[in-house]
Write a sequence for this structure.
């Protein structure tokens, strides 16, 4: 009598879990649609919690650090279309022009003043000094930047419409690789001295 009912209940419980989420199996390769799902018996609450969005270390060239909770760091967001990160900018800090090919971004400033902006496909620039409590959205794929525009450290939380939005920094794409200087010069209209200087600064060769 009871067995069929129990069976139905168990089946429903386990099958509904599988449709609720797809915690990333970080041992499996990541493709464009994300990671494969971890077996649901192995999923724990810690897959849905990320405790790393503390203040980051800004001792670097950009005087800035982005601490990411994307699916690679935060397996619970895999497949859910969202993720989060934290930005810390020391005085004079900058996140240079960059894009996230996979998703739009919302910045929520919680400390200091951040000059933020993006460039549309028509090369129109939308930028503004944001202070604590201000929010700005950067549409998917568009180049954008953040600069500490104040005299104190600044911080913000970033949310993304993708569990794995990706990141490409324009200056690194242009100057932090081994594309020969002659080609960089030709494709950027910069002179040789400028190209070599930027390659040196950002760690490129060639
Ligand atoms: C921050 O990073 C710098 C450079 O890597 C390092 O020397 C310094 O100890 C770090 N500071 C902290 C508080 O971890």
């Amino acid at each position: 009598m009871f067995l069929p009912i129990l069976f139905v209940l168990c089946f429903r419980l386990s099958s509904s879990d599988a449709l609720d989420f797809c915690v990333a199996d970080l041992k499996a390769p990541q493709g464009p649609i994300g990671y494969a799902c971890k077996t649901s018996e192995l999923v724990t609450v810690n897959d849905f919690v990320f405790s790393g969005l503390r203040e980051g270390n800004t001792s670097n060239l950009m005087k800035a650090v982005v601490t990411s909770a994307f699916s690679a760091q935060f397996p619970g967001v895999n497949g859910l279309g969202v993720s989060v990160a934290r930005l810390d900018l020391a005085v004079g800090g900058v996140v240079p022009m960059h894009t996230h090919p996979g998703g739009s971004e919302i910045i929520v400033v919680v400390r200091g003043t951040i000059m933020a902006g993006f460039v549309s496909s028509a090369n129109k620039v939308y930028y503004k000094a944001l202070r604590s409590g201000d929010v700005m959205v950067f549409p998917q794929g568009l180049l954008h930047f953040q600069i500490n525009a104040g005299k104190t450290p600044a911080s913000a939380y970033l949310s993304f419409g993708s569990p794995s939005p990706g990141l490409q920094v324009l200056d690194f794409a242009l100057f932090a690789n081994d594309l020969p200087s002659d080609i960089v010069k030709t494709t950027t209209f910069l002179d040789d001295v400028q190209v070599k200087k930027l390659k040196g600064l950002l760690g490129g060769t060639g």
Notes: The chain has two domains: 46-165, 172-202.
